[in-house]
Input
Amino acid sequence: MLSLSDKTVYSLHRISGLVGGLFILIITITGSILVVDKQVDNLLNPNQTKVEPIGNHLSYNQLLVSVQLQYPSAQVLGLQLADNDKTGAPRVDLIDQGGWKWVVLNPYTGAIIGARNADATLVRRARELHENLLLEPIGGFVMGLAGICLLGSVLTGTWYYRRSLLSVFNIGIRWNKSARIVYADIHKWLGVVALLFMLMMSATGIFFHWEQIERQFGDGAPQNKSQSAPIPITAISIDKALAAAKASIADFQPELIDFPKPGDTTLVIRGNMPGSLRMLGQYNVSATMNARTGQYVTGFNARDADLEYIAEHIFEELHFGRYGGWISQIIYILLAMATAIVTITGLIIWFLKRN
Output
């Protein structure tokens, strides 16, 4: 006979799995795409990621002339550099007529080789579905609840099977038994295999959704949004700023430029240097520059950041699993699929018990 506490724990395990089941499946599928989002996007758009190197790179100011001619009223948000890859194509992110566009350039000719609506791309749709079911902000609360359900399901399942947790590896999957036993064995076996992964995913996911809730309802004094027009692209000294940043920060390897927002006079160049830690974020180093003059203003290194910054970026890397290159990406996808199967088998077990 089960004790009352075990009965209660099992009921909570079942309820959390049923309530969050469909959404957990969405999280695992979209999360798998996001782990390899760049590879997926490159695969779907091969003509917009590589170019044939002919001659010398044009300056970035020259490249942006092409963008300005094509999109004269656009606000440029960012520029992804391609200095370390001779066949790489830099990408400009901009807002044009209210839409977010990705514009890819041939760095040798200045020609625009691709322009897409960013919000319509598979990787962006997958991200929005993963975070808010394409229904911001309500969907964000729902997915946050799904994360809580996953965490609750893992914790209650671990407690309920605490005495036989590791014995599942000795028992294995009894394929010659009834369907209900087979599904139960698969459920428990994969549940133990992916236990730490599910705990990590649910905990970090809840953390990020809590941050979204704070931003939604405000977590500080309201900020005044400037109505000033952004600095014209022709007035921004991009190449001079890049040179000054490299001269000011030893071994700096710029990878991304964030352009000034309306009312701001600085641009931020992000990148890394030898010895940068991927666990501290995609970009460990940044240089804030005067947008008009290209002069260096200040620098930042993630190693010197406060504990909150370091924790947030470690959580993000742990959540998306890109810190170990293709090895961690493959492991994360396999564990995400295991989580999906655990969810599906749990639903099947519930259905079989009712019939």
